[in-house]
Amino acid sequence: MKRQLARLAITLGISLQMACALADAAAAQAKIQIGCTATSDCASAMVAVDEGIFRKHGLDVEMTPIAINSNIPAAIMSNSIQIGGPTSTVFLQAVDGGLDLVGIAGASVMNPTSNNAITAFVRNGITINEPKDFVGKKVGAPGLNAFLHVLFVKWLVEKGVDPKSVKFVEVTFPTMADIIKSGGVDAVLTAEPFVTRMTNAGLGSVGARYAVELARTDPIIFYAASREWAEKNAAIVTKFRDAIAEAAVIVNSDREKASASIAKFTKQPLDLVKATPPNQSEPRLKPENLAWWIEVMSSQKMLQSKLDTSKLVLN
Length: 315
Hints:
Mean pLDDT: 90
Distance between the termini: 51 Å
Largest sheet: 5 strands, mixed
Radius of gyration: 22 Å
Shape: globular
CATH class of the largest domain: Alpha Beta
Low-confidence stretches: 1-28
């Protein structure tokens, strides 16, 4: 009887070990979908995929293109993607609206180079000499209440222009050239390499470099997940952060590798991507980094509640 109990105990122990091993293997092999729009802001994730950095850290990751940034929070909550790259503004408005999202790592931040790459690009036949010339114009933004849109509204306010006097519509980055060419909008809020591409095609010119005038250094895009997923997968989040930190070094120092990954994901010509440096990658994300955005969005009446920055970033 004792021998039978001992054998049973050994069998149960082995079974438990096998179950744990299988569970660990399943977790390691589970594919993580990261959703981002067609810009260089998620370059650290793109590089981490292409250079095998995620695999080195035991993660199986695939990048998923998202047309409009404001669609990312819903994609995260539906589990279509597990991690997304929302702009700071899209993230904050989603949280304010009741979605339990949390930032898990930094992606890109504003700096003089990236600010210079942001423009209001104006189609041929439209003349913009000063901010008030945007009054009455139809302006396309790659996501209403997303990064470029909120920054532009902030700029208009600082220049004494009522944002309500401008008509805003959503236009995805890949379709900007076509809609500018067709006259569907008077201007688009965009960034490199799309600015150079439309300029070279003779579709119009830069009407304003509004981000340069604002001269901020706050987060543009960061990686976010549902709080439930992040807390249940704490080990994966740690590995993800380590991989992103390693890839960020490459993004900021190796133009060749960064450009190749950006061109591959965004489907932009490599030469065009190489012509403009990617936005600065900053893998660290601190709660206080979101304070300015909350202030700006509150002033634009985009937030209904008082958000606590300490709850917005996973420890």
